[in-house]
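Thread: quick sanity check before group meeting

JM: Hey all, I'm pulling together slides for Thursday and realized we never actually wrote out the predicted structure for the chain we discussed last week. Dropping the sequence here so it's in one place. If anyone has concerns about the input, flag it before I start.
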Amino acid sequence: MTATRTLAVALAAVLGVGGCAKAGTSPAETAPADDAKEVMRVGDAVYLRYFLYGNAELRDQYMTLYKQHGATAAQLKDFEKMNALLDGKRWVRADEKKLTAAAAIDEQSGLDAMTPLPKAGEHDLPKVGALLTAVTTAARSGDTITGTLDATKVDPDANLLFSEPTYLYGPAARTMSYQAVLDGQERLTEFTVTMPSQLVSEPAEGHEAEPPLVIKISGYGETAAPTAPKDAPELPQSAYEVLSRDID
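JM (edit): ok, ran it. Output follows.
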């Protein structure tokens, strides 16, 4: 990975949304794309927009394999139904517990790379709070705060840093440098974590330094509250099983 990892997000005092549509549009109007993965909460309902297998070429390859390996007509029909529902264009209503369980299964799935599902009333979508609670030192100069944080204290479920930072960086994982930038109203606009330069087991040929984690926050109070997609179909049980391992 050579480019700086940037999470550009908009926080607002509205119901939390992951991968929401642009303000002023309905979810159904957002243009589809290969590898589309979005989850949205509207009240107590959860909606998913997802491109099964990540792209059309891989999806078609799976269809060919199913046919070659003797899939029944009913199984092929079910597969085509899931492809139609999970085409990266439309929203489907999903069961929150089943979706969370599918993501937790130890298989390779596109769900693993998705932003964690926001909880009702949650506004910290980039999970920067998980970093703030790990701060161990802080010094302020103007609108900039610098210091260190203990990466072992960061919730691994936030998908921000490594699940086992001490395995990679040893004691240095407990004193990672960060920089926070505030705006004129004392609101956080940027949070940067610099990765240690040395690994515990340094390869003889050296290694490319891990880029910093950069979280940028903007649009306070500007994001419109989401609306439920009209006539969104219910995701069938068989789809959760496929979602748990769609890229395995």
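AS: nice. The first strand starts at residue 5 and ends at 10. The CA atoms of residues 84 and 90 lie 9 Å apart.
JM: adding both to the slides.
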